[in-house]
Amino acid sequence: MRDIDAILTAAPVIPVLVIERLEAAVPIAEALVGGGLPVLEVTLRTPAALDAIRAMKQVRGAIVGAGTVLDPDQLNAAREAGAAFIVSPGLTDRLAVAAIDSGLPFLPGVATASEVMRARDHGFSRLKFFPATASGGLPALRGLAAIFGEMRFCPTGGISADNAAEWLAVPAVSCVGGSWLVPQGVPFDRATIVARARAAAALR
Ligand code: 3PG
User: Which residue's CA is the closest to the ligand 1 atom numbered 4?
Assistant: First the structure.
């Protein structure tokens, strides 16, 4: 199993995916991996999400994790589906214990100094900064990074093709996450997704 650092440094961008139609899952994964983005976060926000993880992890080169994991039951369901890593928008004590027990690489969400300290208490040092833009953007992240020197961040929420490079220029940023590569509700278009993935993969 890869550790969380291996996952966060495999590519500069982690596509955050909301998969509504299971049939779209494999083509989306193939397009993203083909474009140079192997790490994929499938959010548990749709009924198709767990089956999408099962299907997408068969795509050669894909490292498929579960996102929007809110509690131990969802974490266990993601683990059973074969998720390679777990992402949460926040952190609860129950989820921290379940994540440690699972042994899976885990990226909990934080937006404030106290939340970073709470994650640190549980032993986590790789954190999703979420929602990145709404929580103060780059100045807020730089402020947290200055205090918590050992922490590394994956900012997500409001990151786009236009501003991803600015975030990636911060030394404490391992990678960024975002939904701009495969926007929800837009019909699948392989060429567009491959082109976006290529541009994202070249960011660092
Ligand atoms: C997430 O789950 O990380 C966010 O919904 C992604 O945020 P974005 O849609 O602003 O990229």
Answer: 157
Q: What is the number of domains present in the chain?
A: 1
Question: Does the beta carbon of 109 sit less than 6 angstroms from any atom of ligand 1?
Answer: no
Query: What single letter denotes the amino acid at residue 59?
Result: V
CA–CA distance from 196 to each of 29, 167, 172 (Å)?
A: 13, 17, 24
Q: In this predicted structure, what is the pLDDT of residue 34?
A: 98
Q: What CATH number has the domain bearing residue 136?
A: 3.20.20.70
pLDDT tens per residue across span 103-156: 999 999 999 999 999 999 999 999 999 999 999 999 999 999 999 999 999 999
* Cα–Cα dist 63/83, whole Å: 8
Tokens of 195: 């082109």
* Domain containing residue 172: 4-201
Closest ligand 1 atom, residue 158 Cα: 10
- Cis ω for the linkage preceding 131 (within 30 of 0): yes
* pLDDT tens track for 158-184: 999 999 999 999 999 999 999 999 999
Which DSSP state fits 133?
Answer: T
Is 159 touching ligand 1 by the criterion CB < 6 Å? yes
Which residues in the chain belong to E strands, given as ranges?
13-17, 39-43, 63-67, 86-87, 106-107, 109-110, 126-129, 152-155, 176-178
